[in-house]
User: What shape does this take?
Amino acid sequence: MDWTVYIIRCDDETLYTGVTTDMERRFREHLEHPRGAKYFNGRKPVEVVYTETGHTRSSASRREAAIKKLSRAGKLRLL
Assistant: This one.
């Protein structure tokens, strides 16, 4: 299965990083459902600003962890 690592920009200009197999569905979940992610309680996802495709579940999880360890400046350079 093809996994995607993504970064979403929120209405408060913060950046959220996650993984999924279906980017459109996952973004919709973040927008519409409480199951989207606790991070979005009090924030609204605005747009997907970064994606990396072609990962396995394992490599996507490792890449997500690596991106989450970056500073905000590092994430912005990645974009």
Q: What stands out?
A: The helical segments are 23-32, 57-69, 72-78. The radius of gyration is 12 Å. The domain at 3-78 is CATH 3.40.1440.10 (GIY-YIG endonuclease). The mean pLDDT is 94.
